[in-house]
């Protein structure tokens, strides 16, 4: 598995792990989070 | 007017900072649990807990580490609760969460996600915190509530396990995650 960044001295899986993590970070928040965001927007105790 | 008049500038700053870490919380939760829907539930619960406890957060400190710890604790609570509703006794669930397991080389899989889920829970958490989330050993130890040396050991073992699973020999025996070999 190719590394996600160019760190030459690390095993391939290390880049794969970051790639896996970053793939979730880069996802848009799903619709299920809308209620949460509204609660936080409202400023009350969610 | 409702209570939202109490929505102060500090609350707004907290909210924005909390929103900024949600993608990272999702990635951490996904890695921990391996289940996208459950992971998102964990994140939402953790975000609500963080919001409710916002007065205990010190602005300018590490929001990501603070919320990761909240999520992690909630995840462990959920695991314990789910284990109580299955055939596993509570002690078994506890061991699964905290033991320093020494698994044999389990599966030869090229998929990172599968390999991650086959790590012992505390090793998976450690390698997610250090290798994926980019925390320092000190921060990761704080999040996991363990000494730095323990965190380093867990990461080293996780790395060895992953290397063995992903780069190693084709051994196809699936071992239970909770297995303790001594």
Automatic annotation (TrEMBL), chain A:
**Domain (Anti-sigma factor NepR) ranges:** 12-41
Please indicate which superkingdom the organism of origin belongs to: Bacteria
- Which Pfam family is one of those matched by this entry? NepR
- What InterPro entries does its record include? NepR (IPR041649)
Entry protein name? Anti-sigma factor NepR domain-containing protein
UniProtKB/TrEMBL annotation, chain B:
Which biological processes are named by the entry's GO terms? DNA-templated transcription initiation
Q: Which residues form the RNA polymerase sigma factor 70 region 4 type domain?
A: 112-162
Question: Which GO-annotated molecular functions does the record name?
Answer: DNA binding; sigma factor activity
Matching SUPFAM superfamilies: Sigma2 domain of RNA polymerase sigma factors, Sigma3 and sigma4 domains of RNA polymerase sigma factors
RNA polymerase sigma-70 region domain segment(s): 21-84
Protein family (similarity comment): Belongs to the sigma-70 factor family. ECF subfamily.
Q: Which PANTHER family match?
A: RNA POLYMERASE ECF-TYPE SIGMA FACTO (PTHR43133), RNA POLYMERASE SIGMA FACTOR RFAY-RELATED (PTHR43133:SF25)
What is the protein name given in its UniProt record?
RNA polymerase sigma-70 factor, ECF subfamily
